Automatic annotation (TrEMBL):
SUPFAM superfamilies cross-referenced by the UniProt entry: Homeodomain-like (SSF46689), RmlC-like cupins (SSF51182)
Protein name: AraC family transcriptional regulator
CDD domains: cupin_MtlR-like_N
Record PROSITE patterns: HTH_ARAC_FAMILY_1 (PS00041), HTH_ARAC_FAMILY_2 (PS01124)
InterPro entries xref list: AraC-bd (IPR003313), Homeodomain-like_sf (IPR009057), HTH_AraC (IPR018060), HTH_AraC-typ_CS (IPR018062), RmlC-like_jellyroll (IPR014710), RmlC_Cupin_sf (IPR011051)
Keyword terms, alphabetized: DNA-binding, Transcription, Transcription regulation
One Pfam short name: AraC_binding
Coiled-coil regions, chain positions: none
DNA-binding in keyword set: yes
Amino acid sequence: MRPPLRKDIEPVAASFIVKELTEPNFDPNWHFHPHYQLFLVEEGTGMRFIGDSIKPFGPGDLVFLGPNLPHLWRSDQAYFDKFSGLITKGIVVYFAEDFLGSDFFNKQEMTLVRQLLHNARQGLEWTGETRRQTERSLRNLTKQTADFERVLSLLSLLNTLSHASDYRFLTSSGYTNTVKPSETDRMQLVHDYVLEHFPDDLSLDTIADLAGMTPPAFCRYFKTRANKTFSEFVSEVRIGHACKLLMIGKLNITQISLESGFRTLSNFNRQFKDITGQTPSTYVKTYREL
């Protein structure tokens, strides 16, 4: 994964952008931009990285991101095989904070939407009925051609989201984007190596050497950039992979533990609960009820 780069959204005459995405895999570049982004995954699986949040994604994954929040939907490796026949699909909406004028969201009637926009700077995801309703609204939005109707539809959607309670914050409350476009590609090398080798025993000496640093210097560097220790990052990648395997439902918990890089079931169960707040079996039950 590359260090997040500032990504400019192409200029258009309209006040906001709606796109239907159909590609072999989602954009593999770790990036950020000054726009709000509402994104629905319609087809495809993988891991998503948003700020300091690491979670698996699949069809129905719905998130809302504030400006300059680094993000990446990393498709599973099978989607990079040109002979797999797999594709990813999604709907994305981009808009600037002043897309309806600099003071529009400061009006009294916009209090709840203004709070929604503020919360989006931490990243938001929805579940349950709100997610299903938003899926329908986004698909309808892609079909509308009248500009005025599109604006009304987006405002109605933001209003619905601002009243919903079935949401979760994605990043930790203290997260800030400390990465500058001038950063080296150190984090690129580290992320790629971990994502390729997380089922194996990972040596801190090897990772630090890859980054061209001593182990203590690398640990300090990584925590500053990722807002977590390197070992916490590895654990979250492994648990994220385990969550995906649990959702697929083809392996038992012992097999999933080994496939995700854990050598003992007790360690897997402990770290799974520490990171997700649930046991693996409770996680599966919760997922099936969404």
